[in-house]
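Sorry to interrupt, but I need a hand with the structure work. Could you add the entry underneath, on a fresh line?
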Amino acid sequence: MKDKDAFVHPTALVETQDLGEGTSVWAYAHVMAGARVGRNCNIGDHCFVESGAVIGDNVTLKNGNMVWEGVTLEDEVFVGPHVFFTNDRYPRSRRGGSPDMPPIEKTCWLVPTRVKRGASLGAGVTAVAGVTVGEYALVAAGAVVTKDVAPHALVKGSPARWHRWVCRCGHPLDFTQSVATCSECGLRFEKKGQGITLL
């Protein structure tokens, strides 16, 4: 049910009945029926959220984002301006069929993409269909994500590659040994296998 405490700008179009308490939808944004948007989210100007997209609590969508069916943004995700999600690896225009192309079922082309809790995507990131961005990962502006991103990883470039580890607060971690303490918030992490864990 659409929460009466949500704010919807007069120029926004919100068709979903699943808009959480405290969420704000700003100018010229469109949230389709069947999209799910959690509590305390901020959906910026000119955003589009398609039916079947799932947005958790405390998510920030900066201006100009398109969140398609099959995309899940977990709680506390930050999406910078003009991030590009995709949901089809081999797109074609005609889904209903034509004399030279038979109909294609959604199950044959829809590829889920997930951005996990606390992760951030910088401005202009492209996330190819089917990737998972791990918890508290940070994807640098303009990166092209073609494969899964590990939790707490900072990735950058095209294609996006691991650069270093980051804290839950987003600041870089300096692993001079097997343990690092965040200089910003004081959380401590340990290298474990191919990743890091909170101590």
About this structure: The two ends are 40 Å apart (CA to CA). The helical segments are 106-109. The longest helix spans residues 106-109.
